[in-house]
């Protein structure tokens, strides 16, 4: 495995990327229904207002980048139009795959705002569980590398060149890494990013990812973090959002599911790689955690 953040992105397996130019002028507002897939945009010129359901509205300015790991319903409007314009409803599933320029408001004349937007999907069937470790909204300002990456995604997605799908998958992986590493861990909700921002808890998380098969205990992880057992347990649960042994088991099962989907070894080999002394012990734990025995899970995963 790599480092914890890279591990997470590799297991999410981002793929199927689309990007398009978006512009708006005058009094405009659009209402997107819930999409579920991750989406992103970077503002090139002007400003606009983004109101995501359940969150305070934010004003986006030129140079801003937004990533929604599991895009909920939201409203976007011209900076001064939010209170006086009825939003035009848009079904994101109906416009998926559109790669031209999308214009909001009057179709003639120079736009007041220009942006690049797009979406992708996670090939992992466990994406919802893994995405729960990430912030629901990532809003960054002035990260030029992200603007460059989004432009590269737009150019690549608009052309049918050899190796296009591979290039797009790698670009989105880099986009995700750049966005997530730029998030302030203290501002993130409980989860992996916040855990990696805490020097003591980050040590324990890295050790889990370095050696998922090791017979870890709370006491052993606490020693790695240079904390007492009770202080480590409470701090880990508060920052990561779950107790350390639950995180360990969840990560082991994520690895196991990936190995089973790829048919990457016999059952006893997979069991050993995720810390179980026998195939039967692993099968019992897997079935309890996932709801299916490993062999049935592998058959179901490869049939889809």
Strand order of the largest sheet: 9-1-10-3-6-11
At CATH's second level, what is the architecture of the largest domain? Sandwich
- What is the C-level CATH assignment of the largest domain? Mainly Beta
Under CATH, the topology of the largest domain can be stated as Jelly Rolls
Largest pleated sheet = 6 strands, mixed
Tally the structural domains. 2
The DSSP helix count reads 13
Q: Please tell me what the overall shape is.
A: globular
Relevant CATH superfamily of the largest domain: Regulatory protein AraC
By secondary-structure content and strand pairing, the structural class works out as alpha+beta
Terminal residue distance: 26 Å
Count the beta strands. Answer: 11
Order of helices and strands: HEEEEEEEEHEEHEHHHHHHHHHH
Percent of residues in helices comes to 40-55%
Low-confidence stretches: none
User: What's the Cα radius of gyration?
Assistant: 22 Å
Mean pLDDT: 89
Percent of residues in beta strands: 15-25%
């Amino acid at each position: 495995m790599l480092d914890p953040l890279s591990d997470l992105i590799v297991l999410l397996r981002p793929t199927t990327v689309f990007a398009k130019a978006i512009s708006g002028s005058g009094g405009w507002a659009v209402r997107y229904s819930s999409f579920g897939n991750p989406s992103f945009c970077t503002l090139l010129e002007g400003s606009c207002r983004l109101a995501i359901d359940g969150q305070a509205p934010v004003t986006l300015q030129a140079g801003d980048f937004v990533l929604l790991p599991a895009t909920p319903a939201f409203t976007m409007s011209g900076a001064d139009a939010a209170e006086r314009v009825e939003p035009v409803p848009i079904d994101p599933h109906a416009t998926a795959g559109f790669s031209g320029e999308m214009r909001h408001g009057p179709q003639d004349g120079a736009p007041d705002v220009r942006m690049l937007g797009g979406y992708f999907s996670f090939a992992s069937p466990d994406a919802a569980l893994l995405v729960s470790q990430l912030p629901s909204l990532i809003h960054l300002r002035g990260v030029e590398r992200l603007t460059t990456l989004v432009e590269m995604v737009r150019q690549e997605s608009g052309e049918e060149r050899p190796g296009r799908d591979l290039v797009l998958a790698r670009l989105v992986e880099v986009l995700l890494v750049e966005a997530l590493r730029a998030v302030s861990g203290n501002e993130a909700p409980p989860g992996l990013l916040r855990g990696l921002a805490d020097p003591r808890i980050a040590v324990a998380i890295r050790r889990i990812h370095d050696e998922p098969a090791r017979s870890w205990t709370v006491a052993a992880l606490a020693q790695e973090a240079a904390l007492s057992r009770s202080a480590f347990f409470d701090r880990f649960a508060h920052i990561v959002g779950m107790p350390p042994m639950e995180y360990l088991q969840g990560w082991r099962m994520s690895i196991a599911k990936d190995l089973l989907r790829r048919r990457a070894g016999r059952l006893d080999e997979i069991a050993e790689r995720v810390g179980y002394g026998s195939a039967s012990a692993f099968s019992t734990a897997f079935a309890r955690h996932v709801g299916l025995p490993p062999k049935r899970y592998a058959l179901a995963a490869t049939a889809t």
